[in-house]
Amino acid sequence: MLKEFKEFISRGNVMDLAVGVIIGAAFTSIVKSLVDNLINPLIGFFLGQIDFSDLAFKVGSATFKYGAFINSIINFLIIAFVVFLLVKGINKIMPKKEAPTAPISMEAQYLQEIADILKKNNSQK
To answer: Which coarse location class applies to the principal site listed for this UniProt protein (predicted)?
Structure first.
């Protein structure tokens, strides 16, 4: 069982996922700081105060703070847009990797030659 666990952990996909989660957590804090400290104040400057956290309603003894939920939605949309812009910028910078082409079997080559001959004969008519 220990051997199986070692094989599972040492797989590339598991290690890549672990690195992705760790970097994602660090990246989340950077983007959250960007949104909280730069973008939200800038939006607040142009649109006025956008803090809805005080909005709430009561039903009996229960308090529903829907304003905090609205703030969370706004922050999510801003973070999603910033991440979109970052990924788009990185995709422009990074070259695309071409997928390796599989070798073509002899049967596929013969079929392609037959298709080419048929196309050529049909275009001559």
So the answer is: membrane
CB atoms within 10 A of CB 35: 20
Domains in the chain and their CATH numbers?
1-100 (1.10.1200.120)
pLDDT 10s digits, 4-31: 877 776 766 777 778 888 888 887 888 7
Phi, psi of 8 (to 5 degrees): -65, -45
**What is the 3-class SS of 18-77, one letter each residue?**
HHHHHHHHHHHHHHHHHHHHHHHHHHHHHHCCCCCCCCCEEECCEEECHHHHHHHHHHHH
pTM of the model: 0.49
